[in-house]
């Protein structure tokens, strides 16, 4: 078996699965598709727990615009709010990204490992 | 994560297809915590004022120390928390961990973790920042599939 055939075998197994959209995952990908929203997450990564005004000041955008982006991020669960005294603070919630990591990255790493193991086995058999 | 400026509060949320009772059990019983909390075994009677301890998988070492502040099964559990597994975090003041579980529609529960009182525990804050998402993702996977995360 060639490496090319290993690759096509993997592609085949992916395309043959009928897509069942997971609404939670869809929301995360949709939220991450926008550069401003990714920049908001980067800001919160640098300094977690910011009030709306602080996030707003970092972007040349109307309060309404920032709030709209924050709402999309909150719906995807990537930003969560928490009250500290009188202020409502925004926190980066990395759990949905971790779940995508677990769901996708781990799986592909596993595939690659097993493909390489197969390849090694093939080569050793041939040798 | 040394580039990240730590604040005194960390907040994490996750939606889990499980009942509040199942999530409560997963947080408070060692047979569950061993499967998603770095293998650690929780020990507590959950009475306010009583210890809330995390043991290493072989029970040889005490990894975490704390005291139950509030216990309202299956909705809210709050305790002080100090990580003993690292010299620098062990020397810091205890912080506070609060789990809240809210039942939602469709058999889903919202689980939130607020880790605060980290003002005097910057090393702890840095130490747990990546850990919580790993733990909550593992907890969700365990309750929804019955399997611990690989690796």
What can you tell me about this protein's structure?
The complex is a heterodimer of chains A (127) and B (151). Chain A is mainly alpha-helical. Chain A has 2 domains: 22-93, Winged helix-like DNA-binding domain superfamily/Winged helix DNA-binding domain (Arc Repressor Mutant, subunit A), CATH 1.10.10; 95-127. Chain A has helices spanning 3-15, 23-32, 35-46, 52-58, 63-75, 95-126, and strands at 50-51, 79-84, 87-92. Chain A has a 3-stranded antiparallel β-sheet with strand order 1-3-2. In chain A, helix 2 (23-32) packs antiparallel against helix 5 (63-75). Chain A is elongated and about 70 Å long. With 151 residues, chain B is an alpha+beta fold. Chain B has one domain (10-145): 2-Layer Sandwich (Alpha-D-Glucose-1,6-Bisphosphate, Chain A, domain 4), CATH 3.30.530. Chain B is 29% helix and 31% strand. Chain B has helices spanning 20-28, 30-36, 87-90, 122-145; strands at 10-16, 41-43, 53-55, 62-65, 68-72, 76-83, 95-103, 109-116. In chain B, strands 1, 2, 3, 4, 5, 6, 7 and 8 form an 8-stranded antiparallel β-sheet that branches. In chain B, a hairpin with a 3-residue loop joins strand 5 and strand 6 (76-83). In chain B, helix 1 crosses helix 2. The longest helix of chain B is centred in the last third of the chain and has 24 residues, at 122-145. Chain B is globular and about 45 Å long. The two termini of chain B are 21 Å apart. Residues 1-5 of chain B have low confidence and may be disordered. The A-B interface holds A 24, 45-49, 77, 80, 82, 84, 89, 91, 93-95, 97-99, 101-102, 106, 110 and B 3-15, 112, 114, 132-134, 136-137, 140-141, 149-151.
């Amino acid at each position: 078996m060639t490496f090319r055939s290993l690759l096509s075998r993997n592609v085949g197994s992916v395309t043959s699965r009928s897509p069942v959209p997971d609404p939670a995952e869809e929301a995360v990908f949709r939220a991450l598709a926008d550069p401003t929203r990714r920049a908001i997450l980067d800001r919160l990564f640098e300094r977690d727990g910011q009030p709306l005004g602080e996030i707003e000041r970092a972007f040349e955008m109307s309060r309404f615009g920032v709030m709209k982006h924050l709402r999309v991020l909150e719906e995807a669960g990537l930003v969560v709010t928490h009250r500290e005294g009188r202020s409502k603070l925004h926190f980066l919630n990395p759990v949905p990204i971790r779940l995508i990591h677990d769901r996708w990255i781990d799986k592909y790493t596993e595939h690659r490992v097993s493909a390489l193991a197969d390849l090694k086995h093939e080569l050793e058999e041939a040798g | 994560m040394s580039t990240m400026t730590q604040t005194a509060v960390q907040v994490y949320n996750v939606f889990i297809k499980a009942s509040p009772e199942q999530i409560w059990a997963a947080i408070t019983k060692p047979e569950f915590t061993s499967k998603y909390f770095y293998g650690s075994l929780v020990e507590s009677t959950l009475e306010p004022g009583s210890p809330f301890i995390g043991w290493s998988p072989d029970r040889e070492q005490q990894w975490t120390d704390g005291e139950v502040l509030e216990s309202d099964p299956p909705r809210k559990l709050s305790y002080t928390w100090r990580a003993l597994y690292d010299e620098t975090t062990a020397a810091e003041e205890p912080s506070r961990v609060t789990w809240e579980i809210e039942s939602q529609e469709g058999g889903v529960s919202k689980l939130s973790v607020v880790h605060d009182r980290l003002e005097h525990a910057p090393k702890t804050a840095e130490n747990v920042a990546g850990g919580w998402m790993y733990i909550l993702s593992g907890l969700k996977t365990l309750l929804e599939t019955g399997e611990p995360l690989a690796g």
